[in-house]
Amino acid sequence: MEQTIATEKNTVQEMKKPSIYSLQLHELKEWLQTHNEKAFRAEQIFDWLYKKRVSDFAEMSNLSKTLREKLKEHFTLTTLKTIIKQTSLDGTIKFLFELSDGFSIETVLMRHNYGNSVCVTTQVGCRIGCTFCASTLGGLKRNLEAGEIVAQVVKVQQALDETGERVSSIVIMGIGEPFDNYDQMLSFLKIVNHEKGLNIGARHITVSTSGIIPKIYQFADENMQINFAISLHAPNSELRSRLMPINRAYKLPDLMKAVRYYIEKTGRRVSFEYGLFGGVNDQAEHAEELANLIKGIKCHVNLIPVNYVPERNYVRTPRNQIFKFEKILKEHGINVTIRREHGHDIDAACGQLRAKERKEETR
């Protein structure tokens, strides 16, 4: 009995320790100095974390034993446990990871002709409530800390190390609303972008939001070179409110105003993510309305043939209708592409694998 209590106590203490992946380089330097260590050790630690990608502090052989013990005492290193790894015929790999507190998240590796892209999760669940998305089933459990987001990329990169490949781009489009976990998301961006970190170029990183307007203004003022996408999915307020309840709080006209501010502030274009749902938002009149909504905006439209989610009632738009929708946008001079499907033969929709395997989290 005493041994069981001691084990549970140690587990709780381990869970309370932050991930070392949460620290930006300057923060790690500050931590070292406050613990009577040399600041230059931070770059050595980053090298072990992001270049050599070790899984234990004990492997950091050019650090003193005392420092390694300090790191182990204050931080966790391995924060994700692989529960399921699904591999698609097209090379897409979906991971279901378990966190230290038992909650689960999804991360996806997508293979393109231009490189390997990782789609990361920022929250356990989601409170936005989009009616087509499996990620929001069961609501929001908690935010991820920056290190738990970083660890997703590290875990995928460790898998790619076996074949001599590397992660070349990141999309923040997994479970959760990134701007609802803004500070941790921003810290993640700075860590993976840093040359001493994973060194993923800013223009190879894309963050997507469903439209938390105050954070769009804040993100614009960060003036980063990160690619920016808006989950739009409807060309008018009435339909968008039906699909995405967030539109009731942050109205479509105000969202478009924020988008224009972002473009003016950064000089960068915005991508509009537009999922096509059969008989809902995929008709010719919707394409015409969308073209009028975004006319004159420096943008790109990404049409997404949606994956079927059993818990939702939406169906896929027929292929010929997708091409018709695209054609109308092009006739209006809109830059548009149809997103290539990934992992159609596995649980590809965002949150779908978690909903199937961890029903207690998504009720």
UniProtKB/TrEMBL annotation:
Q: GO MF terms on file?
A: 4 iron, 4 sulfur cluster binding; metal ion binding; rRNA (adenine(2503)-C2-)-methyltransferase activity; rRNA binding; tRNA (adenine(37)-C2)-methyltransferase activity; tRNA binding
**Which Enzyme Commission numbers does its entry carry?**
2.1.1.192
The record's comment on cofactor binding reads: Binds 1 [4Fe-4S] cluster. The cluster is coordinated with 3 cysteines and an exchangeable S-adenosyl-L-methionine.
Q: Which reaction does it catalyse?
A: adenosine(2503) in 23S rRNA + 2 reduced [2Fe-2S]-[ferredoxin] + 2 S-adenosyl-L-methionine = 2-methyladenosine(2503) in 23S rRNA + 5'-deoxyadenosine + L-methionine + 2 oxidized [2Fe-2S]-[ferredoxin] + S-adenosyl-L-homocysteine; adenosine(37) in tRNA + 2 reduced [2Fe-2S]-[ferredoxin] + 2 S-adenosyl-L-methionine = 2-methyladenosine(37) in tRNA + 5'-deoxyadenosine + L-methionine + 2 oxidized [2Fe-2S]-[ferredoxin] + S-adenosyl-L-homocysteine
The record's principal subcellular location, in a coarse class, is: cytoplasm
Q: Which SUPFAM superfamilies match?
A: Radical SAM enzymes
Q: Name one GO cellular component term.
A: cytoplasm
Q: Where is the active site?
A: 106, 350
Indicate the segments forming the Radical SAM core domain, all copies.
Answer: 112-345
Q: Does the keyword Methyltransferase apply?
A: yes
Q: What class of enzyme is it?
A: transferase
BP GO terms, sorted? rRNA base methylation; tRNA methylation
Alphabetized, the UniProt keywords read: 4Fe-4S, Cytoplasm, Disulfide bond, Iron, Iron-sulfur, Metal-binding, Methyltransferase, rRNA processing, S-adenosyl-L-methionine, Transferase, tRNA processing
Q: Which residues bind S-adenosyl-L-methionine?
A: 176-177, 208, 231-233, 307
Miscellaneous comment text of the record: Reaction proceeds by a ping-pong mechanism involving intermediate methylation of a conserved cysteine residue.
Annotated family: Belongs to the radical SAM superfamily. RlmN family.
What protein name does the entry list?
Probable dual-specificity RNA methyltransferase RlmN
Q: Which organism does this sequence originate in?
A: Bacillus methanolicus (strain MGA3 / ATCC 53907)
